[in-house]
């Protein structure tokens, strides 16, 4: 496990996602209301990119006709077949035990802290004045 | 067909379709191009019908104008399929090339425009829309990209008009099949459709029946369903009804070289349907004393199926069984791009296939049935 | 043939499998049969308006392959016993009447015909042979009256289920039918769905078919749609103890429906989020199917694979469809020996809460 600086925080504005590659891993980072999460980008079903999916909540109903949305912003729907994945855990809604994508720890760190190391900085010229997204892979 | 874009993305779509790894060339038998806009469609109509559409619209049996009665998942589209240049999914050739034809190594793509000609109730308009759709396929898609082939749209409920359009395109091998909706006004084996079958047989063009989202009849034998999840699986029902009607109506006795391709109903339904036909044929044989062969024989000689949406049974051996029972030489791979239930050639068939079997499924069967070589 | 039931002599209780035949057809009652069982007004109307022949166009029992060669085999309880119950060693047999009562447009006439038919079944059949059971006719055209009829029959445990025809006015999952299911489940009735219809809708998406064989072959579509409706509308969420028995439906099409709908559910569940499990699980838990006619392949090895696609061995129950014409009346070929006992009768005993065997 090592920590990787993958981009500046302002490259993933609130309400967007970004695809990054770390050690050949294809990873989707989402910024939901300022909270970051990261999961493997590839849907295990037919290979769509989850970073292109719609971020949404969990649709539930205790009885027919009583639909509601809970946990707003905590799921992404695959852009193809609509399978839902929990952004924190990577578990699917439809089969949470067996069907899941890998979830990664993601953090925001100030550049001042990062220039000291020991982070793997790949393509970024880290500036002290900026905040950065750091993935643990 | 709705032109509305409810869920667009403006992000980087590069690599949205994973590149197929095997190098196996693919014939995609179900690609859905659409007009960029209603004006785009109108530009392929003669002035008389352009005015008609502008002032009176396109009358169909659907309850809604310009929208599907069962709202779909993600507007029915892959969310990543909206062209960056604007317009609805699959309205832009360069983006279709980038997102579908190139990454999937598609040697030939068969266009399946869900043309209003199939469902327009006004016969004159239906004919004009068919002609316009066919001109547009050539103009916008097939002439600019030699990989693409067309499906000949016809006004299926008006045999005279259908024959005029078929004759107009006679000899144009860029159209590889004649496209009709299985949700015909009467069962597909009815005599009113025989002139179309006769022409198709004479020209060596398969009849392709693509699942349709609505028709004049309720979508079940017990009335309209409430939900899309009930509507969607039942796409195969229209195909089953068409097949049964054509077999028991004697169509294949009368037109022994006719080829039928059922598109976008999946294929898992076929073995049970054939078993049911065989069983009941023994019980009802005297109802059809003139039928020359058994139902399974007609299926074996006349029918092909496109694969999407692929069956996903709990065990992969169950998918292998289905393929065995149908015969792999009768299955034609399709993606259904840009629709939400898209199939990718690398991931749709998670069963052991030999390279020969994979080549048949992905490419060779289609080359043969459409005479693409 | 895997099972030649005619060779198997009935033995004493406990030495042979219990046999419960889930689908037996008595003759259709006519005007003189129903008049004695109708209230005064309806008796007068049945007679004055000649409400007599009640044969469904979609289940035309006067035609082939329904019509028995010898009508006496379904004319009365004694004829049925001699022709079928005795030789097949049936311990309990469920009578199903597919009648115009299901198709009547007048909701009150429908209720009156259902009630009179049920009273006729009780008096002329159930009273005369203790092996007989019946499906109660209830008017889906009139849910209030259907509930009342269920309550009227609640004490008569010889009625083990209520009967819906395959092709109704609306899909069976619709909310207006829920009171019927609640009442049925409260009293332990299963819901049976049997071919036959109201002709409110064409049987196919392309209209009315030209031949009987098409109608029969394609019945699986409406069965699939009824199952999908019951699941999608949330009937099994609302009435968790409801059992649904598909009769004369065939079997081979059901796995495909289960797979297809469960696949779609993964993305489309947001439309019906009360389904918190894939449809295959609801279907496995709540559906039962009868064996005749078995619509699998002739090849026994492939037939066994098809039967194995059913997720649970409890789902299958024996039926003969007597006296309609079939090549055989026993268990489907390809059914593993280990399942025979269950399919002959144990599954039906587990399914029909109201069915008790006193004669075995």
CATH homologous superfamily descriptor of chain A = Rieske [2Fe-2S] iron-sulphur domain
Rg of chain A computed from alpha carbons, rounded to a whole number of angstroms = 16 Å
Q: Could you spell the SSE succession of chain A in H and E letters?
A: EEEEEEEEHEE
Tally of extended strands of chain A?
Answer: 10
Task: Provide a descriptive summary of the structure in words.
The complex is a heterotrimer of chains A (137), B (373) and C (360). By secondary structure, chain A is an all-beta fold. Chain A has a single domain, classed as Rieske Iron-sulfur Protein (3-layer Sandwich). Chain A is built from one helix and ten strands, in the order ββββββββαββ. Chain A has a seven-stranded mixed sheet. A three-stranded antiparallel sheet of chain A has the order 5-6-7, with no helix packed on it. In chain A, a hairpin with a 2-residue loop joins strand 3 and strand 4. The longest helix of chain A is centred in the C-terminal third of the chain and has 4 residues, at 111-114. Chain B is of the alpha/beta class and 373 residues long. An eight-stranded parallel sheet of chain B has the order 1-2-3-4-5-6-7-8, sandwiched between helices. In chain B, helix 5 packs parallel to helix 6. The two termini of chain B are 33 Å apart. In chain B, 57% of the residues are buried. Residues 1-6 of chain B have low confidence and may be disordered. Chain C has 360 residues and is α/β, with parallel strands linked by helices. Chain C has one domain: Alpha-Beta Barrel (TIM Barrel). In chain C, 36% of the residues lie in helices and 11% in strands. Chain C has 13 helices and eight strands. An eight-stranded parallel sheet of chain C has the order 1-2-3-4-5-6-7-8. The longest helix of chain C is centred in the first third of the chain and has 20 residues, at 107-126. The two termini of chain C are 27 Å apart. The interface between B and C is large, with 68 and 74 residues.
């Amino acid at each position: 496990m090592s920590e990787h600086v993958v981009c500046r925080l302002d490259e993933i504005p609130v309400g967007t996602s970004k695809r990054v590659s770390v050690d050949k891993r294809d990873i989707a980072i989402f910024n939901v209301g300022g909270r970051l999460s990261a999961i493997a980008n590839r849907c295990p079903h037919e290979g769509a990119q989850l970073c292109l999916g719609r971020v949404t909540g969990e649709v539930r109903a205790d009885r027919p006709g009583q639909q509601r949305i809970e946990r707003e912003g905590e799921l992404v729907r695959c852009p193809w077949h609509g399978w839902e994945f929990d952004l924190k855990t990577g578990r699917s809604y439809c089969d949470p035990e067996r069907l899941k994508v890998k979830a990664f720890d993601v953090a925001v760190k100030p550049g001042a802290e990062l220039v000291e190391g020991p982070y793997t900085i790949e393509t970024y010229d880290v500036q002290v004045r900026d905040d950065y997204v750091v993935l643990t892979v | 067909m709705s032109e509305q874009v409810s869920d667009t993305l403006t992000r980087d779509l590069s690599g949205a379709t994973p590149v197929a790894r095997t190098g196996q060339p693919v014939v995609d038998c179900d690609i859905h191009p659409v007009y960029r806009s209603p004006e785009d469609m109108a530009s392929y109509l003669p002035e008389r019908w352009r005015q008609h559409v502008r002032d009176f619209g396109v009358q169909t049996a659907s309850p809604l104008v310009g929208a599907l009665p069962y709202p779909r998942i993600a507007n029915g589209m892959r969310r990543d399929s909206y062209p960056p240049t604007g317009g609805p999914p699959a309205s832009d050739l360069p983006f279709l090339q980038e997102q579908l034809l190139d990454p999937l190594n598609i040697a030939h793509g068969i266009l399946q425009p869900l043309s209003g000609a199939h469902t327009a109730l006004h016969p004159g308009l239906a004919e004009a829309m068919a002609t316009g759709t066919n001109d547009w396929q050539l103009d916008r898609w097939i002439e600019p990209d030699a990989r693409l082939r067309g499906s000949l749209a016809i006004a299926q409920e008006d045999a005279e008009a259908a024959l005029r359009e078929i004759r107009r395109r006679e000899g144009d091998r860029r159209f590889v099949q004649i496209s009709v909706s299985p949700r015909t006004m009467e069962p597909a084996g009815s005599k009113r459709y025989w002139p179309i079958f006769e022409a198709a047989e004479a020209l060596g063009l398969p009849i392709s029946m693509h699942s349709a989202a609505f028709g004049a009849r309720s979508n079940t034998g017990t009335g309209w369903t409430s939900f899309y999840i009930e509507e969607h699986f039942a796409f195969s029902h229209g195909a089953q009804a068409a097949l049964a009607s054509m077999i028991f109506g004697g169509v294949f006795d009368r037109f022994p070289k006719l080829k039928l391709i059922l598109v976008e109903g999946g294929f898992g339904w076929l073995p049970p349907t054939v078993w049911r036909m065989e069983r009941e044929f023994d019980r009802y044989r005297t109802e059809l004393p003139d039928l020359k062969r058994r139902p399974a024989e007609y299926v074996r000689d006349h029918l092909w199926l496109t694969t999407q949406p692929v069956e996903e049974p709990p065990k992969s051996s169950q998918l292998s069984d289905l393929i065995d029972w149908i015969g792999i030489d009768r299955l034609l791979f399709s993606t259904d791009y840009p629709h939400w239930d898209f199939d990718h050639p690398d991931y749709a068939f998670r069963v052991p296939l030999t390279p020969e079997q994979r080549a048949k499924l992905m490419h060779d069967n289609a080359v043969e049935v459409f005479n693409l070589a | 043939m895997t099972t030649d039931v005619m060779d198997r002599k009935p033995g004493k209780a406990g030495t042979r499998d219990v046999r419960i035949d889930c689908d037996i057809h008595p003759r259709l009652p006519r005007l003189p049969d129903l008049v004695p069982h109708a209230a005064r007004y309806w008796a007068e109307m049945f007679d004055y308006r000649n409400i007599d022949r009640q044969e469904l166009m979609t289940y035309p029992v006067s035609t082939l392959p329904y019509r028995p060669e010898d009508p006496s085999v379904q004319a009365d309880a004694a004829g049925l016993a001699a022709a079928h119950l005795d030789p097949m060693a049936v311990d309990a047999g469920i009578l199903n009447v597919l009648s115009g009562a299901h198709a009547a447009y007048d909701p009150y006439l429908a209720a009156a015909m259902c009630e009179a038919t049920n009273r006729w079944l009780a008096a002329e059949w159930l009273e005369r042979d203790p092996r007989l059971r019946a499906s109660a006719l209830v008017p889906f055209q009139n849910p209030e009256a259907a509930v009342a009829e269920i309550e009227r029959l609640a004490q008569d445990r010889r009625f083990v289920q209520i009967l819906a025809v395959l092709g109704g006015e609306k899909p069976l999952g619709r909310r207006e039918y829920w009171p019927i299911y609640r009442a049925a489940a409260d009293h332990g009735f299963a819901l049976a769905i049997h071919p036959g219809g109201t002709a409110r809708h064409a049987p196919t998406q392309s209209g009315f078919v030209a031949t009987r064989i098409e109608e029969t072959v394609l019945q699986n579509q409406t069965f699939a749609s009824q199952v999908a409706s019951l699941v999608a509308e949330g009937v099994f969420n609302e009435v968790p103890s409801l059992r649904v028995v598909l009769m004369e439906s065939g079997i081979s099409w059901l796995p495909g429906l289960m797979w297809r709908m469960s696949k779609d559910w993964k993305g489309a569940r947001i439309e019906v989020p009360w389904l918190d499990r894939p449809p295959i699980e609801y279907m496995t838990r709540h559906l039962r199917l009868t064996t005749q006619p078995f619509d699998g392949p002739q090849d026994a090895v492939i037939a066994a694979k098809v039967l194995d696609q059913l997720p649970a061995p409890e789902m299958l129950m024996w039926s003969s469809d007597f006296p309609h014409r079939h090549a055989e009346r026993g268990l489907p070929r390809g059914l593993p020996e280990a399942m025979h006992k269950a399919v002959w009768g144990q599954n039906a005993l587990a399914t029909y809460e109201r069915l008790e065997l006193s004669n075995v």
